[in-house]
Amino acid sequence: MSFKRSLTAVLALCMVFTGTLTGCDTDRTDPLDNTDSNLPKVQDISVDEAKDLIDRNTNSTEFVILDVRTPSEYAQGHIAGAVNLDYYASFENSLFALDKNKTYLVYCRSGNRSVSASQLMVDNGFTSIYNMLGGINVWIANGLPLAT
């Protein structure tokens, strides 16, 4: 076999190998791609949308308002009917006690903890999560009522 033929064969093999590594097979899915539209996702909603959601589900046993602030923050005022589950006090370990099939509206003071808490819930198999953007601060700024 001549050097030219050997080089051609090696180059051809390299092209095939490179094509495999660069994903020429377009029918494959990336196992790390979690953008599948069938997976549950957190739905971010405004305070006004959260108020509408609460009003529509006032008597529903399948709807839970989840306040993830500390107990002292909760005691200063919270959305009526909200359950307090402190994000900083083993929130993730407490998720086993919640029904994964219910609908949850999650909020905190400003919206940071609720984002993390909501994502943890989705990651743990919860299927219907709404995150209230801006938290209780925006709720109060919009003149909405608090319970104490």
Automatic annotation (TrEMBL):
The keyword Isomerase does not apply. Coiled coil: none annotated. It holds the Pfam family Rhodanese. The keyword Signal applies. Residues 59-148 form the Rhodanese domain. Keywords: Signal. Residues 1-23 form the signal peptide. This is Rhodanese-like domain protein.
